[in-house]
Amino acid sequence: MKILMIQGGFGAGGAEKMMCSLAAHRTELGDDVHVAAMTMPAAGSFFDYPAQVHLHVLDRPAPRLPASFLQPRRGLAVRRLIAELRPDLIVSFLTKVNCLTLLAATGTGIPVIVSERNNPSAQSPRFWRRAQNTLIPRAAGIAMQTHAAAMDLPPAQAARAHVVPNHCDPVPFTPAPPADHCRFVAVGRLDAQKGFDLLLEAFARLPADLPATLDIFGKGQERDNLQAQIRALGLTGRARLAGLVPSASDWLGAGDVAVVSSRYEGFCNVVAEATCSGMPIISFDCPYGPSEMVRHEQNGLLVPNGDVAGLAKAMERLARDRELRNELAGAAWIMADRLDTGRIMAQWDALIAESLGDTRAARRPQPADSTLSS
Questions:
Q1: Is 318 found in the same domain as 254?
Q2: What pTM, to 2 d.p., does this model score?
Q3: Residue 362 domain-assigned?
């Protein structure tokens, strides 16, 4: 079978990581897999695809055109690639790409699976959320990462959506050597969504007698603003922007507690990696994702979304209580089984079979509660 997978770019990110894994999995099953994206970093794909996977970059140099022409040009590029490859199935990731793909595939008879990878209700412009809700009935299959995200779809589409979280096997890492202070770590793009400004505010509220440091790993457009905030809050030497790390094992081995301060998420791979690998975590209970992975007081602590004072209180609690940190770290089994790679890929295989009209596809399991258990 020939499968075309389409995403926004070949850079770093949870969606890109998942598409690379899915492409590798379907290649192992013998499929002819093509992966397309609008852009490619100058250094090439951040994630390493198997040599058998064909990569396509859709954006091409063109005369200067108004910004309003960008998405129509991309839609036409998708349409041309579909006509060239004539795949048996298309898998699309992310809101804008889903819309362009569903439009481009119209009239071809090729089934399309769309997957939302972020939180469209919290993004702007809202045009794309409305467009996706209008076009999504055309999709042969729908993959959402959390139950809460699925419920954000129009009711008829929510009823047929598959909840397929990102896979996450336990990450082997070398724990940071013992220290006389608590090392907090945070990871993600340096942008407003990740709420690192809120995290710095919370860290600044910790008692002066509490020995603690904070490393924020990542890069992005808010770096200068965050650096200025560190200086303004008097946190120089205690909090730092530590740059991009090549793998989860690097940040897992750099601290004692992970903190997620996001205003919203689509799933949050940092929460998955911490809870599966045995690192204590504190997270805002933001939409969507953390509450479906963090069991409060069992494998981490949840704080009401945006509650800076509550975040500071939770950070102080774990900084002072090494025994509690060890207890939370010891509960990695809770999510490690649920996000096992084999389990998640089997769910994708079932969705693909169902979308192709394969009557042999097993009925997907129905979760007993809102925890990611299917």
A1: yes
A2: 0.83
A3: no
